[in-house]
Structures are given as C-alpha cells and as structure tokens.
C-alpha cells in the first residue's frame, strides 16, 4: 500500500464519486456456523435449552469432538437484533511447510521439501457488523493468510536470531551484529507475519465482498501457539485475558473510536476532505448547538491528551467525527470499532463519506512466553467477543473461571462447560454475578484455552 | 494550526524553495547561564574545581540562594564539543491570576481582579542543539506561556470538575453530566495548558530566531506543582524519575527517532514529497548497498511492530529516514530527538529537506498526586538532561540518591550537593559507579526536587 494508492482510493479530485452499486459476479457467501459445531444443531442435546423457556440456546461442540489443546468453546445468538449470529469462530492446527533453499540454484528459491516443518495451533473469533459475510470470509481465510505469511519467513525462524538475509548468507560480515543490535528476535517475525496476514485477509475480504455484491465488516481476535509462545493479535473490541490462580492479565486492548481518538482526529486533520464538510474533527463533551455559539467550551484536538476551552464557531456545530463515550462512542455516527477487516464499501448514511480510510486492519500483538510462565493446572486464556465484556469485568470472569474449574476437575469437557457457564452468566439468570438490568443481548462467543502442559517440548520439526 | 497551514508550509507546489538566508532584524539572543546561578561564576568557590586538574567545573547556586521547595541544582559544560553550554535551566514561583467574570457585562470577560489567585512552582531543563539560542529563549519564555495558558482556563480549575462552559453557566441542563461521563478532571485542564504552552513557546522561538538570524532547537522537560499535584511534561530525551526508599518510578519517557519510528515513518508515507526522493522511509537492520539488490532482507514499515523480509529494490538503497539505533539513531541523518522546540529552519546538510515537519513540540505529561503519595523524608524527583542518563541507569541514580541523603541529613544545601555528586559520577572519577570508558562528555544539568512536606495544605487562594 502506498500513499499514492491512499490518495487515489480515498481522495478523488473534484466531486466525490457516488458509491458504485455492487454488481454481483459470484454467489453470496453462504451463512454457516463454525465447522467444529457440526452435529450440535440448536435442536440437538448439546444446545443448552436452558432453564427459562424464553432463553436463547447456548451452543458448543458435541461431546467427543476435541479442539486444539482441548480448548472449550460456546456461543449464543443475539436477542433478534439480527437474523443471523454475526460472530464467527475458527480453530485448528497450523502446519507451516518449509521451502528449502537450493544453494546450487543461483540463489533462487525452490521448493525441495514441502513437508510440514513447524506446527502450531490457531483460535480465532470474529465479530461481524452490517451482515455476517465479512466474519464468515475471515473465518474461512485468515488462517490460510497466516500460514502463507509464516511460510514466507520460516527460514528466518530456524536460527536463534533471524538472519539479515533470508538466504542465511551474509552479504556484509557484520550482518549478525546489526540484527543483534536492533534486538530483532524470532518472535518479531511471527508478529510481522500476523500483521501482514491481517492486511492480506482484509484485501481478500474486500475483493470477495465486491464480487458477491455483499457488504459488512468484522473485528478479529486471534491466538496462535508457535514454538513455545502464545501470540494474541487483536483488531477490534473483542478481548483475551490470562487467568491464573493469583493473576488476571489482559492479553489484548480494545480499538474503538474512543481509544483511537488521536489517530482518527489526526487523519481528519491531514485530510479534511475525508469529512466532506459534514463533520467536525474536534471533540466536545456533548454535541454543540446554536446556544453555544460564541461561548468558551471544553474541547480536544488531535494533538491533545488534556482538555482546553475554545470559543464556539459555526463549524463546531457540525456532527462530531467521534461522538458519544464508552461503548456508545461512534466513528462518523456509524461504527463502534476502529480496527477490523472489511467495510470497504461502508459509507455514512445518505452520504458518500467513507469509513474505510479511518479503519486499520493491522492488529496489536502481545506475546506470552509459555516456557517462562510454567502454567499450572487451572491456568487458562479466555477469549470472547464484546458481548461478554459488556456485562462482566475481567475480575468477575476470573472468579467464575477459578471456582468452576476447582469444582469440575474430572470432566474432560470442562472447558466447553466453562465457556457455556460464562455465556449463561451474561443472560441474567438467577445465579449470575451481574446486576439487575445488565444483560447481554448481543452475540457472544467464548474460547477457553487451557495452558497446562503446553509450555514444554514444543515441536519444531 | 490547520492541515492547510501544514501543506502551505511544508509542501509547496513544484520545486522546493531554497532556504531563505536569515536577515537579522533584531540583535542575537545573548548567551547566559540560568539566573539562579548568579554569583556562582566558575572562578568562584561554588564552582567545584574538583579533584583532577583536567576536570571541568561543576556549577550550582551559591549557598544561601534557595530554589523553590529547596530544590538542588548543578550543571557541567561539555568537553569542548561546543563553545557554550547548550543546556539551560529555569525555575521559580508560578503565579496564576484570576480574571473574574462580570455577570452584568452581557457575558463578556472583564478583569475585575488581577491579583494572584493560584500559586505553583516550576522547574525546567532545556537541552539545546545547533547553538544555545533556542534553549535560552525557551528558558526565558516557556513559563510565561504556561502562566498565560493557565490563566485562560483558571475559572475552569476552581470547580470540583471543569464546567462545560468557562462562564460556569449551563447552556444545556445536563452539561455537568456530559463532563462527568467524559471523565474530565481539573488535571486535564493543566495537561491541556502544558500542551498549549509548549506549542505557543515553539512559535515564539520560531519568530525570535528568524528575527535575530539565529538557528537551533532544544528539548524541554518541565515539572510544575499545582494544587497538590506534580505535572511532568517532556518533549525530547531528558528524563525525570521519582526516587523513594522502595521505589524508582519513571515520570517521563524519551522521544527519539527510535521511540517515535512509527509516527515518523507514517508521515513520510502520507507525504513522500517530504523526503524529496533522497531517503527511504523503510527501516533495515543496516544501510543497504549494491550487493543486497534482489536479496530478501529484514525490514519494517510504518504499520509494523514486528519484522518481515522484502526483496531489495534500488530505491531501498537510499539513506534511511531513521538510521542507527539507541542513542545513535538519527532522523534524516541529522537529529537525535523527535520532539522539542525550535529547529524551524533546520535542513538536511546541502539539501532543502526540512526536519521540522517530522518534529512535535507537544509534550507527554504525567501526573503525580502528592496527596496520595504521602512523601517521606528522602523522596525526591531527579530531572536531568540526557548526559546523565547516557552513563547512569535509573537504578544507579536511585542508589546514589539514597545513600547520599542518608549520610547528609543535616546539610540545608544537601540537594544541590546531591546534584553535584550525581554529575561528578558521570565524569569517571575514582568513586564513580560507572564502568571504565563510560564517561559523559555532554553538557549535563540536574534538578533534585525534594517532595517531603509538599503534598499537604497546598494553597489555592
């Protein structure tokens, strides 16, 4: 992606073009639930018909079907907010093949050996909006993008430290020293591969949605285990936390119009034409109105962490680029997240103003060193879409996790049972820890990944 | 500042204009040392002629001259790197006047009472480059800018929570609720005032340097005490730390081409014309050369935290936008800091490529709540320019501070003595904790601010 590309794509000279009506060339992306839920239809026994007649069913994999690391999973559809469950999930083994370097071949690449070389595991949650298509495409695609990106750098992951040249041959005798001084580690290649995979997947989704005449976007939260480390990549407002006996550690942070205010305001400062004269980039405590004209009111611009006062002018009365606070904050009055995949065609209602230039597909990646962690019996990672975190805090989830696992040591399906219990806790049932009125009406999807016995003896060949 | 202004200033159409030769209209900014050092000339007894004949003198205020909070100060000039000491310092009482609102006056502002309303204290260090002028101007000016910015919002600082309107009158009955929901506190107004003051000061320096035909820039590290809180604002590579008996807490972070890589690369991505085809925005472990062409080498772009490999093209052989690592990292081969004041005319040697568009004058501000801290006898804040931190770690400084204060409880000038001792520790004397060869040849300036008895009973009228 280049700056020229950005300008051509988002800053056409003269009038903004009307959005092209999508002309479907391929059939629509078919709706489906995650593959690993097969056999657990909502009419089957594994869907939890719960204790209340009006309750929505909680679904999880059929007993006997095991997910990577014996992880647990459960999901619930929203309370008729949309026809489909817009959350999606994927998990599986990640097989990285090695493309060996043919030394004789004049430094060209050759696939001499395409056997599995490195194996890891992959769990992913996608929370769709504007339709289920983007999340389904992401669940079908992102792991392949990641595999491809990892295979492109796998030679660099073999050495203790990534070599300056992928061939491993030093052009300059002090190459290893330069890499050492920059502090570049194997895990930086995995982080780079995750960053590239999210971007590649975003491009695939853009092409596929255009081809099928569909729209929509999704957040993406991914956990990947590789060579003794667990990588958590997040673009959106889902969340992953580590729960141990004495510790609750966030493994991701949320990307919303509120948390990314300065980045978004700065883009509007650099390219004011993106707002087409319809929005103000400034933040005020509330939307201003005629009575405020000429008054000095609290405001913040892109370069400010603090607040100051400014004299209200007419242009300040426009609708704010970011409006509302907390979970209610919206970008251009439209979107509650600032990172994710898709949304290539999304425009502000009844205008040509595009959302996409303000959205990032690149995730933030955190790394958990499993060898250093020495995971204990009840240590787990909980990954869930925002529907769970809207009503339960990290600490509340941790308490539920600890007490459930303590009382269910023998059940081989206890991690899926735990995922189901967490979802039921958001539904306002009698034994729920949440307060009256704090019920999740959103789609909720939860992975519980046990860490015990996973740190040691990771296979690297 | 608007985006249009940025484009007019930095992105002229067609050929880049040659830098205007400065035409002095005013006399040059005269060189001087901080006012509070008067009477402590290097020939006087307070300049520490040290134990070695070749040692440079360490200067500190004359005994009997007390700085705010009985703070200590010391400085040393560099080892003939430049003719002048390019560090500067300032400190004093900060008197904020109140401009009372004339209710009868049809909602206009009137100064009914210009008496001192709020008092605070101010300590500042400036580390100049390209000449001493910018740092001297900053030392002469920044506190006035800050006072002006604080006076502009002081009415908002009176209430428990800043009002939506500076007049205090609600236009909308739920105004307090909006401010409450946004979590806007009094300290956010001080942070906003510090941010605005740095920017205002940068503009003043730009005008003054142009008028006097001088050049240069400086970093700025400021501590301000106000209403029971200590604010530390930093733009550059100086550093402030809190040292307590059981704790060492950083109160600032450094802004260098290395720590601000992504911001700087992103600007070059958005405005490639800023590099005039002479630099590559990509980061590589070392500068590439002809032999690397066609090879796959490690690289990072603006959107990446991790590393990946790319096939080297001819344009990758250009000089990197950010080159070198750690203390050696340079922006456009020229500057070691990425935030600060001044440098309005700075260009890459023998080109018209400007540094200023890549520099921020806005500081990062951290807040220390003195009431919550309950400072003990030996709790201090140490502020120093990079010359100190180049050779001493936070932990080493903390150990020196603790052992010195423990052994010098009675001396009323012990904080200046401590500042002098810290500077001597960077000069490679026998009892210095630094290793052989790790000696600071840079200018070094140090404030030591004692916190005991400062949290309680702060005056607010």
UniProtKB/TrEMBL annotation, chains A, B:
CDD domains on file: PP2Cc
All copies of domain PPM-type phosphatase, residue ranges: 100-451
Disordered as annotated region, ranges: 1-63
Domain of life: Eukaryota
Biased composition (Pro residues): 18-27
Record SMART domains: PP2Cc
SUPFAM superfamilies named among the record's database cross-references: PP2C-like
Name of the molecule in the record: Protein phosphatase, Mg2+/Mn2+ dependent 1M
Organism field: Bos mutus grunniens (Wild yak)
Gene of this entry: PPM1M
